């Protein structure tokens, strides 16, 4: 354990040391400009090799959290992306393209669905998954070829967390997409799991990346079927088959598929399926119906489903039956379903228009579905700052990535065509600033 002022840096691996330093930066215990211990001194204090500490420092530099400052050694960057809270107020006039949230004007009207809710509350012994919703969910999922034992959780993150904590042990290695959903990464760290990053391209997590994770001893693999956050990737039919072949020989592996985009998707679902002994498929209602609903349908093998329900009962209890009935009403409401279909087409059009315009101007934006685009950049902090100077807030990729090179996330869920030219012009200037005049 190494003391920097009043903060103790800990860790016996590069990932653990990096996480400890990140925590210090986030909490303000390692303030901007703070020098970190020299590599050899920290290695001696922690009882690890200098190469381990050097690897941690190198990853932190790549993610824009620390920098080399001459005789001062390695210091916390003054504009580290970790220093800005995700919900910090933006300066007046700055348009937020960093939030990663759906357009509330495209969410279905709940008036009719609410009118169909039960008029009486239930008692404790009546709680749990509503059988009628499970039957309806079985019909909905079967259209996409998803079978299995069904249950209900309080959103996708709850389903993923319950699946992991009932199947794995702290310290186990979990393979996640890189870059990927920040909430999953934070949840894994808080739960004591180690993480392994799987590179992502437009067809989803790469087969080579999954193979490397398996060789490294991953006990679980988490993938996003469609609208991957932050890259907008969608698992293709070819990629799904490649992953099936890789995973078939691993009966003890937990496979988690997150299909949060669901009915909004303009592309078919390529379900990897129950090719391992433990598997979970999660379909959240948050993006199509509303983030505040906090309801997800989970299909899984019988044993894992039973563990999920048992742990949920011991933790936060059942998902509100009122919310479950509300989801049921929305699924049966033809007007609500038309609104969801319209929203899906609108999101896709907004994403494609902005993505194509960026590409036409030499910006290699990635995105195939969902709310976001991913743009590789040389320096995240510089790009984020330059975009803000031009009136737009974009999210630094360091919040989402492990080993993937730098990038920024642009949320396009509310971008209208009339705004595209200005956004592209700002992005071109931010990524390729004009050099000094000669």
Automatic annotation (TrEMBL):
Domain HTH gntR-type: residue ranges: 11-79
Give the species this sequence originates from: Natronoglycomyces albus
- Say which family it is in: In the C-terminal section; belongs to the class-I pyridoxal-phosphate-dependent aminotransferase family.
What's in the keyword line of the UniProt record?
A: Aminotransferase, DNA-binding, Pyridoxal phosphate, Transcription, Transcription regulation, Transferase
Does the keyword Cell membrane belong to this entry?
A: no
Q: Gene3D superfamilies, per this entry? A: Type I PLP-dependent aspartate aminotransferase-like (Major domain), Winged helix-like DNA-binding domain superfamily/Winged helix DNA-binding domain
User: Could you state a single Gene Ontology molecular function term?
Assistant: transaminase activity
User: Keyword Amino-acid biosynthesis: yes or no?
Assistant: no
Protein name in the entry: Aminotransferase class I/II-fold pyridoxal phosphate-dependent enzyme
Q: What Pfam families does this protein map onto?
A: Aminotran_1_2, GntR
PROSITE patterns from the xrefs?
A: HTH_GNTR
Secretion signal: which residues? Answer: none
